[in-house]
Amino acid sequence: MSVLLHREAATPTPRKEATKAPPHPCRHCGAPLIDDRMRESGFCCAGCSYVYRLVHEHGLAGYYRIKDDVTAPADAAVFQPRDYAWLETAQREAEADGAAAPSPRASADGGPNATRTSRPLQNSAPIPELTLDVQGISCAGCVWLIERLFQPQPGARDIFVNAQYGTMRLRWVRGKFNAVDFARKLQAFGYLVGPTGESTAAGVEPEARALVKRIGLCAAFAMNVMLFTLPAYFGMAPSFEWAGLFRLLAFAFGTLSFLVGGTFFLGRAVRALRERALHIDLPIAIGIVGAYAGSLYGWLAGEERVVYFDFVATFILLMLVGRWAQVAAVERNRRRLLSQQPKFQRVRLATGADVPPEKLAVGDAFGLAAGQTLPVEATLRQGEASFSLASINGEAEPRLFRAGQRVPAGALNLSRGAVGFVATQTWRDSLLAQLLAAGERPVARHAFFENIVRGYVVGILVVATLSGVGWWFATSDPLRTWAIVTAVLVVSCPCAIALAFPLADEMATVALRRRGVFVREGDLWPRLARVRQVVFDKTGTLTLETPVLQNPEALRALDLESRRALLALVRDNPHPVSQALFEYLLADGDVAPLPGDVRETAGFGVELAGWSLGRAGWRSAFEQNSPSGDFPLGGADTVFAQDGRVLARFRFLDTARPDARAEIAALSARGLTTFILSGDRREKVVALAAELALPQAQALGELTPQEKAAWLDAHGADATLMLGDGANDSLAFDRALCRGTPVIHRGVLERKADFYYLGRGIGGLRALFAVDAIRRRTQRAILIFSVVYNLLAVGLAVAGRMNPLVAAALMPINSLLTLALVTGGMRRAFAWQP
Asked: Which of 332, 358, 647, 759 is in the most buried spot, having the most CB atoms within 10 Å?
């Protein structure tokens, strides 16, 4: 159910999920601290340390009293440069549209149907509005924090934050508010802003929200049916003057319940049969149709013993609640991601026009801004520039390109300024477009589950038919025979598989969310049981996204003036070494950068008024060498100097995630074989495998995207779980049975992933398998209980001992016992510790 919070609302009441706190939780996000360095600092990453300090400096420490115990880590996205040119354009268009033609289309509640428009007030100019998606909202505390950050912005009027859909609607004073500044402010606190997704903008209603509406109506119908049926159970005589009206109202509300809720399952069951699939909706539809048809006959014939309208209404309500539980958690996890990442921004042609990548033609001259991804293969027009190819070939170290060289599509501009190119291909022919094309994958069919449905359907139809035949020959009474058949269909309640199974899935999803693992696709569960091997990408998946500073004491030893100079050199610099230093500087304390223009020498380093940061010996005349790459990630030091005097030598390493070795060993202990498939150099892949205690034969390097996909095809893609983070993993992703990603701010693979996980470790992967094992054990227990119940209930019905009152009592008792089994069994998922 959508809960809307806005600026004028009172401070939300603290709500915390009851969960067992990790032994050493991060002070900001609550994630477990998995190594000694983290425990010493109290934070899982530099991002969390930085945001924690910002929250307190802004006087917003109340956030930590409101937020959930475990939220998403801030991670490196807090520091990384992000292009908001699209937002500047959107604000300009919103203000222009509002000034030209005010429109009343915007939703007053700021919900998913809110559109970009302006709303006029009496005797005033139209007020501009803009609806945006926000990534990172996880609880009421996030809503409260975003509202408080908006209020002091110049020209800010109103903000409406929809926590359920991850959107916000802004209203501001024209000419005074800067949406880009506000977006950068939110990014500093761990929230990424993106354009409203197509489905949201078009008003497409999520399935969970539509189910809530049905549940509300069917709950009202069920209560009214019970209200008008209970008097008969408690002895109301048929001759009572209001008895006829009560029967009519029970029939009316029962029919409304069938039309509103029952047809939902009936339609889905029919569609499944057309596709030759046995869906859980089939036994539900059989029970609903059988109970309603029998009740309708009994109501028309005046035979109360076969009238089960109260059962029909209550059963439909319970089944709708079960279905809502099945989809709500998955939809919530999907909404945590931006619906449409502004990944491939418009590029500026030499003529000054801004065009989308799809409009680029061969021979077009265009510019690529710092931190922007090259959409098509192009030739560097002049000078030199550094690029990261990690997303397309897995190489961790940047590469230097010179004028006239071709730069591949997908390369990330690591230079401080814009770089000029000439396109050599169109977007349609681009490797990047091919890698990111959406791959078709059929929905997983759960063989075990379908066997249960098949057994239930066949069994109950056989029992109902045999019971009808037996009672017909025994009594020759059609009414009595029909009453027995109806009773069998009514009491053979599929609550265990229709209500308890989805609830177990939902609880498993919630338990994983508290550990930073977010399930995006509901059919992950049947796929997961078939996984026999796990394939990792290397760069950014098994290793951290940015290199790790090995000697932070060198940074802490710098005086204030040196730190200010270093901050000026690394700020707004997308190079991984600069980003790593930037993270450490901001996490350790807020300092103002030195003023001045930073100059870059591609492949060597950057300098500002005598201060320099770059390759060792760069500013010494006797050590000037042609660069083989860029700032080193390992081997030689990165040197910070003033007027040629070395102030600090920083050593960086492309480092494995802290818990990678232990987690891979734990996966092996579960019987899963682990492989590394990487595009990085073979010697680096082998070295990482040795560090993680993996056999060399299970670590393959220098693979192209096509070779990764071919390897999966040849080695059991239908039993493989693939973990990746870059475009070069996309083709293998399309082949793998299950797929996950640790990165959700690049806009590359998260839309293809079945799940994603947050934090600096990979422990969430083991939690995924552990929680799934608990879920399957719980569902087996539920199935055993269901068999025992149905033997008892159907036995009573076949023996002629069942009537509407007994059925009305048995169904809620069965449902309560089933739910108790679910909650009891799944409690272990919340208490599980590695």
From this structure: 759
